[in-house]
TrEMBL record, chain A:
Location in the cell: Cytoplasmic vesicle, Clathrin-coated vesicle membrane; Golgi apparatus
Family of the protein in this entry: Belongs to the adaptor complexes large subunit family.
UniProt protein name: AP-3 complex subunit beta
Species of the source: Sinocyclocheilus rhinocerous
SMART domains, A to Z: AP3B1_C (SM01355)
One Pfam family linked to the record: Adaptin_N
TrEMBL record, chain B:
Family to which this protein belongs: Belongs to the adaptor complexes medium subunit family.
Classification via InterPro entries: Adaptor_comp_med_subunit, AP2_Mu_C_sf, AP_mu_sigma_su, Clathrin_mu, Clathrin_mu_CS, Longin-like_dom_sf, MHD
One Pfam family linked to the record: Clat_adaptor_s
Xref: CDD domains: AP3_Mu_N
Any single GO BP term: intracellular protein transport
Species assigned in the record: Sinocyclocheilus rhinocerous
UniProt-recorded name of the protein: AP-3 complex subunit mu-2-like
Membrane topology according to the record: Peripheral membrane protein
Keyword terms, alphabetized: Cytoplasmic vesicle, Golgi apparatus, Membrane, Protein transport, Transport
Domain MHD per the UniProt entry, residue ranges: 176-417
Amino acid sequence: HDDLKEMLDSNKDSLKLEAMKRIVAMIARGKNASDLFPAVVKNVACKNIEVKKLVYVYLVRYAEEQQDLALLSISTFQRGLKDPNQLIRASALRVLSSIRVTIIVPIMMLAIKEAASDMSPYVRKTAAHAIPKLHSLDPEQKDQLIEVIEKLLADKTTLVAGSVVMAFEEVCPDRIDLIHKNYRKLCNLLIDVEEWGQVVIINMLTRYARTQFLNPNVNVSITHMYEDEKAEVTTLEKRKPYVMDPDHRLLLRNTKPLLQSRNAAVVMAVAQLYFHLAPKAEVGIIAKALGMFEPYLKSFYIRSTDPTQIKILKLEVLTNLANEANISTILREFQTYIKSMDKDFVAASIQAIGRCATNIGEVRDTCLNGLVQLLSNRDELVVAESVVVIKKLLQMQPEQHSDIIKHMAKLIDNIQVPMARASILWLIGEYCEHVPKIAPDVLRKMAKSFTNEEDIVKLQIINLAAKLYLTNSKQTKLLTQYVLNLAKYDQNYDIRDRARFIRQLIVPTDKSGALNKYAKKLFLALKPAPVLESPFKDRDHFQLGSLSHLLNAKAAGYQELPDWPESAPDPSVRNVEVKDSVCAERTVLTGPEGAGVLLLQTTRGSSNILFHVLLLHSHSEQSSGAENRKRGRKAVKNQKSASESESESESSESEDESEEESEEESESDTDVRKKKVGLDWNRILANYVCIINFDTFDMNKITSVFSQTIAPSGLIKMYELLHRITGEGLAVEYCFSRQPFSPDPNMVAVQIQFTNNTNSETKNLHIEDPRLQSGMRIREFAEIGLQPSESVTVVIGIDFCDSTQAANFQLCTHTRKFFVSVQPPVGELMTPAFLTENDFKKEQGKLMGMNEILEKLTLGEKCVNEHVIVERVTATANLSRVPCGSDKECRFAGKTVSSGCLVLVTVTTKEGGGAQLTVNCEKMVIGTMLVKDILQALSQ
Amino acid sequence: MIHSLFLVNASGDIFLEKHWKSVVSRSVCDYFFEAVERATEPENVPPVIPTPHHCLINVLRQRIYFVAVIQSEVPPLFVIEFLHRVVDTFQDYFGVCTEAAVKDNVVVVYELLEEMLDNGFPLATESNILKELIKPPTILRTVVNTITGSTNVGEQLPTGQLSVVPWRRTGVKYTNNEAYFDVVEEIDAIIDKSGSTITAEIQGVIDACVKLTGMPDLTLSFMNPRLLDDVSFHPCVRFKRWEAERILSFVPPDGNFRLLSYHVSSQNLVAIPVYVKHNISFREGSSQGRFELTLGPKQTMGKAVESVLVSSQLPRGVLNANLSPSQGTYTFDPVTKLLSWDVGKINPQKLPSLKGSMSLQTGASKPDENPTINLQFKIQQLAVSGLKVNRLDMYGEKYKPFKGIKYMTKAGKFQVRT
């Protein structure tokens, strides 16, 4: 290779490149180029990027063999790691981590750690790739690497997600706990991750879900309704209907669109996820249930040009799909297969016919007749395979088929395939009573040809002889002894052993023991019919679509799919604190789009006159029918009476003119306005401020997560901030996430979700010009942009000063401004406070007189027990449950977010559906409004 | 994941090897060669072959086996899909993926494989991204590079890697902006002896060649989108818009790509454009067999059936065939017993036929298997399912692109039993 060395030493890049190209071509052909190592490694710092890349290729290939020389190049990569160009940083790390030299492990570790916090997501992705490389080089580094994995798992970019999960799977697949906090993020990012990452993530999440959620196919599960850690309340253990964890549902929902992927591996991954995790009823979307495949029966018909393995698989599918209704079509199809030129396939087809015959009793005779016809086929293989299958079928009902047995006995003269001959002999022996005349004759013929037979045939001849000796010793005694004598001197010791054993067993001598008496029972015992089994059975314990599943053997690194847990582990481990920053995370799950009642509050210019209009709104359609109108009117009345009572109780304090004005409006007036709304829908929509969407939510969901006090993501109400029509394609919804707002604890966290329904990017989305009541403050989000069809969630903080005044501001995009406002229900102005029973009593004692509001009420029909009351109250207000000794009382406590005033709520139930509601709060306005809201919630 | 890759040609030579982790000796391929020997046809080699320490997963494309070496658990489909992607990438770069093309471009092949996998896990497989990292070889570029000493390797991270549309490179510029779409449908069918359809399905694809400046946002709508039964998309297609409106909305990759593949199920009636009349018979005791084949158009919606090719595997007992075609040429290979007849275009006025006799081994009994007839054909300007593109709109860019759409129907796995 001297010429190559010369070229590499030259000053010209073009010569170096030419040399490197030739060297790489050598490597590609598998030729050894290791002696060039010193000459090549010198060029690692070459300016020409292609030369450099090819040197990298060479280095990675030979570094393991030339460790000392390889170390010379390390400093170049260390320099590369600091390069301002992200591609160079990434490739330096790639090569450095691919050099399998243990001495540089600490350098690698350092480089990986640094790259994991690199600004460029591409470099971070490379860091994730480097983790398994280092782990395989030095497993001792596992703990440190897990730290890096943990850090990278929290990464929010789609580029990193797939690679870090890959690293997780290779290094620490059992550390399920690292996934908790990232679970929802991974689910939500999934659709945007590149396809290879999707496969890895889906497979990992399948395993995760199996450890965290309950089996959706067990109808009733035992769950703790709620557990009080203070142990003051008895733990109720109740059977309740299964309710799917919202996170479980999230996974199923977010993977479903990927069934449309162009990548078969992704489709398979989703299919296996549904197979292992979905309720039976939903598995149909992957057409897994056999009934679902039936319409596609004909798609599995076999072409002569299919590769053999495909033919066998299709046969298997057809056999499994066969039922009483379609069996005749399938059998007709099978008959054409038997004429195929591919003999292995013909044999498999005959076996398939046999399996259909065993599975479907109605066609057993038809199949049997078909198979018997095959016995006259010219091809011996076909005949042999048919004999074997017929033998198995006959064993199921031999008495009806003595003619077939006779027919087969005749075949013994012509058929040469040993397995078939053995099968026939076994059949005749087993059912010699059905063919009493033919059987001894067959034995006679066999005795003649014994020495020329194959071993399996010889064994069956001995068997036949033994059985005949026991049933018809008169005719066959001599023949048997002749056969046994031949066998005694056979070359095969199995046959010699068998002969000796059988002679002892059947021929009574003075020495023969007790067994002799039972010889007949031993030989002619009723034998269970064989089960014709699929060659694909017995592999369901492997994860579908895995290598292990295909091979039906555990491959290295296979992670067992765990069984569902008996009871679900704490779902709150997946809760994440939503940071005050843009994240692609969507923690709020909106309920089904049903009809909801809207509360429209329109502002008219600056006069700030508020009036309430209630409308019925359906998310999908704007035209509401007559019935909807009626319901809307009813709602108006409710709201009306509610606001009236409100004004009565706080009229002295109400200084807000607008409020009073709205109170004074007559009912007819409201109706008129409502009609106006109906007529001029668009104008009103353009002005409305907020929509309260009373989605009917699932009771069970609430109870199942109740003990956490923090409202679970599944039942947070979404309010509309900007309708997509008004927003010209930009739809904005908001909700009160009930999470603490970390930058300022005196602010209420409002989670806003933007959806861009247009085809163009919305840029520079931000808040401008907040118009707030004095004292109120708002903490805006950092400016964001939205790609077409993208949804982004941000969190803002608003200090409402413990009032239900709306916070008005403008939402600005790069082209437009929209006036919007956020109005909190009174229940959202508080956060849960944790008190003991004694503390509660003590604090209640301090808030008597003016600060206590008592109200009697009749509980609604559905408020049948404590749990419903608890869920209704906590849905209305962000309060926590306070333990209580009496089962007639429910207590709740909270603090207002802004000023931290205590809010105590007590609901005492009485016989006959009556109840008393007590609210103790220093802020009387809050107290009054809260009483009103809770009353309404409980009397529904 | 993927440990190593071996490329094996039809005669069983390993002509390229690449390792992403420690080197695996090429002797591991002996297990593969054993499997090849056992298989009667090249297609019958099992795709997954377990060996004591490794597992070999292979695909056969263009008469080259791509053999991946696996050491631990990985979904087999993952590897198979990846290998196909490798072949597609080679085809995209070199026009064809033959042994000669791979050998001629061995350095580019190596650079590509280096970028596509890192430590055995896919890194960059998107054609638009790869083309920015490693420029495809062209004659012009080769000449320029030799003179100027510039390289085929990009120095910057492809912009696509970090964007929300990773499949499209930025800064695309064309003087002629054009977008072409080919709707290609293949009929998979089995026709029985009597000429009735046993099963027929349509597998369709829409292949696109989009050369548009900037960041165009396209929507493609159909007159009858409900026809599409089982669809799979290029990642650029917005799934939600399809779900809601049955419209394909996407920011296309630059260049050639497969936008959509779909399936029209056997539940719908599929029009069969040709019929075959046949009489292939052997008589007991005679060393001659009769062979008669006539083709004719059936439901072609007035379009011509072209590029017709008939092939059939005759029974082993047939020694030779003495046939005369009314048009086109036929060949019979006495070793493989493969008969093929290149018919060309079907003229409805004068139906093509192939008639004559087959000679059998004397004394041998008549073969009891019936040959099947495989058909290939093309029909231009017809999508047999009736699928029609309604319109193509472009948003986000100002210029007017040139738009074109082409329909074609082909025979897929089209088989007639006799």
